[in-house]
Amino acid sequence: MLEIDLALTRGDFALEAHLSAPTPGVTALFGRSGCGKSTLVNVIAGLLPGARGRIALDGEPWLDSERGIAVPAERRRVGYVFQDARLFPHYTVRGNLLYGAPGTPRAFDDVVALLGLAALLGRRPRALSGGERQRVALGRALLAGPRLLLLDEPLASLDISRRSEVLPYLEKLRDAFAIPMVFVSHQFDEVLRLGTHLAVMDGGRVVAQGDLASVSLAPALRSIVGHESVGAVVEGVVSGVDANALATVAIGAGSRLRINAPGLVPGQRLRLQLLARDLILATEEPRGISVRNHLQGTVRTITHDAGAELVEVDIGGASLLARVTTEAARELGLTAGQPVWVLVKAVSAGASLPA
Amino acid sequence: MWGFGETELAALGLSLAVAIRAVAINLLPAVFIAWLLTRRRFPGRLMLDAFVHLPLVLPPVVVGYLLLLLLGTRGPIGGWLDRQFDIQLTFSTMGAAVATAVMSFPLMVRAMRISLENVDTGLEEAARTLGASAWRRFATITLPLMLPGVLAGAVTAFAAGLGEFGAVITFVSNIPGETRTLPLALYTALQSPDGDATAARLAALSLSLGLAGLLASELLARGLRRWLGK
User: Which of A88, A134, A142 to mutate to test the interface with B (most CBs of B within 10 A)?
Assistant: First the structure.
């Protein structure tokens, strides 16, 4: 468990963060630029003095201002991957990788293989591309044997194609090592792919936290991702795939969602976001319609949001969000507790799959 | 007229010896002061900064005079050195080196500071998260990356030190073979009625040494920057 309970004032910026995240796992810190994500990460790393409060990893305090504990950064054993890589220019890639590792650690070959660095070992950082630099920075942090990996927008300085070059490595890392990670991002699709736990920050505070499915419903998230991008996150397992790339995914307690996405295999775990604006609500099951998913559920809440209504529907263990006009909500007479059908196009659900 | 005689060779040798010693005396303190002024915030920082730069604005004769007061055999530090270690700086080559060191100290600090200001503190932070102690960070990251400035400072100070005049002649006088460096020999030659040719040769020598020093400094810095991967 990573426990954080902090207050820090720097100039006119105040950070006040209360956060507890399961370990191992990937805690995504999500928010707009300037919301205090990087500041929080720097305080966790011990690079910013002046914070008051408590930080503890698996019960061991790194900071406890009441008891006068403040472990210096160099003894916290955090692996920090900075936005700008920060490779040492006068060291080769090999030298960078080994900087934080005494001798040549046994994991060296594994990390080099995992991150595809073998061909780069003799080069200097200036001869690397942006994506290669971030991979070396990842390897360097890993080889120092960290107890916690901090990733401060490691993809933000990369263009789209470089991002998709590095992202799979981050996923491999998450799955191959049981190192707790804190991943800072202002891109929700990255959070969707990497995060297991989500903390939303706004104005120096953690305004929502929890697993992705529950935080995806949080009102605090809506204005940050933008109203067009609001949508419930659901997790499930592919139970079958037919010849036309129409997959059946088991979600919640017995609901089945059919999605159109090539390349899925039975047994695969999926996390997908169903955008609220793509969902249709009906008070009776429609007939003669191309929409593949007719999910039966119950209206849980209706909230007015940005000139329309956001309706949260419980479909048996999972929640979906649908955005409908105020007029439609009135015409259907939507109220909490009412049974409804949620219509989800298989093609739009497939499109929102994390790439 | 270009044949170098004993006078010129003695003055050249002495100048080289004085300049090298001055650089050696200054090197570590200059790195430390440059680091202190760039990377630390403490009360009295501005005062220290001004004090370090004093020799640039003071007349060299004043510096020589102050050294005489402090380090002369009857001065507080000079007297102590004399009693404890039987060391007399006045009228000695070592004294000339000390006077030259004081005069060129701000040149070294300046070059090192510029270089240190360009060392990304983010790299030191990265080293810190990788478990490096303050000493290791300095030795493996900060110092290597500021080396071009250290080198440039040392070479500039060396070149300038070959020609320090005012502070040297005031503090350690003008003794042939002991403190008569190139500029002092040049000055002496100008005082004598038949010294014109010697003066010209000494001037040409000073000029080429200064030029060579500055060129060497630039070339070395370039090579170092390439080696540092910049």
Answer: A88
Look up the ipTM and state it: 0.84
Chain A / chain B CB contacts < 8 angstroms:
64
pLDDT 10s digits, A89-141: 999 999 999 999 877 777 899 889 888 899 999 999 999 998 899 999 999 99
Question: In the predicted model, what is the mean pLDDT of residues A200-229?
Answer: 90
Residue B49 · residue B56 · CB < 8 Å: no
Q: Which structural domain, as residue segments, surrounds residue B100?
A: 6-227
Relative to beta strand A269-275, strand A231-241 is antiparallel
The tens digit of pLDDT for each residue in A165-200 reads: 788 888 888 888 888 999 998 888 888 888 889 999
Residues on chain B touching A100 (C-beta within 8 angstroms)? 129-132
Per-residue pLDDT tens for A47-91? 988 889 999 999 899 999 899 899 999 999 999 999 999 999 999
Which domain CATH number covers B173?
Answer: 1.10.3720.10
Q: Are A73 and B122 within 8 A, CB to CB? A: no
Report the top-level CATH class of A231-237+270-351. Answer: mainly beta
B222 or B131, greater pLDDT: B131
Residue B224 CA to residue B230 CA, distance in Å, equals 9
Q: pTM for this one?
A: 0.84
Instruction: For residue B85, tell me if it sits in a domain.
Output: yes
Distance from CA of B211 to the nearest CA of A (A): 30
- Let me know if residue B120 belongs to a domain: yes
Let me know if residue B35 belongs to a domain: yes
Domain range summary for chain A, segments of one domain joined by +: 2-225, 231-237+270-351
Our CA-based measurement puts residue A45 at a distance from the nearest CA of chain B, in whole angstroms, of: 7
CB contact under 8 A, A141 and B140: no
CATH no. for A2-225? 3.40.50.300
Maximum Cα–Cα distance across chain A: 71
Interface residue B160 vs chain A (CB under 8 A): no
pLDDT in tens, A295-349: 999 999 999 988 899 999 999 888 999 999 999 999 999 999 999 999 999 988 8
The answer to whether residue B222 is domain-embedded is yes
Contact B128 A73 (CB under 8 A): yes
Q: Which residue numbers of A have CB closer than 8 Å to B's CBs?
A: 45, 47, 73-80, 82, 84, 86, 88-91, 99-100, 124-126, 140-141, 144, 150
Chain A contact for B123, CB < 8 A?
yes
Please report, for residues B59, B170, B201, the alpha-carbon distance to residue B190 in angstroms, rounded to integers and kept in the order given. 22, 18, 12
Please check whether residue A143 is in contact with residue A173, taking contact to mean a CB–CB distance below 8 angstroms. no
Instruction: Fill in the amino acid letter for A137.
Output: A
> What's the rounded Cα separation, in Å, for the pair A10 and A202?
16
Q: Which amino acid is at A198?
A: L
> What is the distance in angstroms between the Cα of B109 and the nearest Cα belonging to chain A?
23
Residue in the block written with tokens 């429609």: A286
DSSP H stretches of helix in A177-290: 188-194, 212-215, 219-225
pLDDT band at residue B1 using 50, 70 and 90 as cut-offs: very low
Q: How far is A72 from chain B (nearest CA, A)?
A: 9
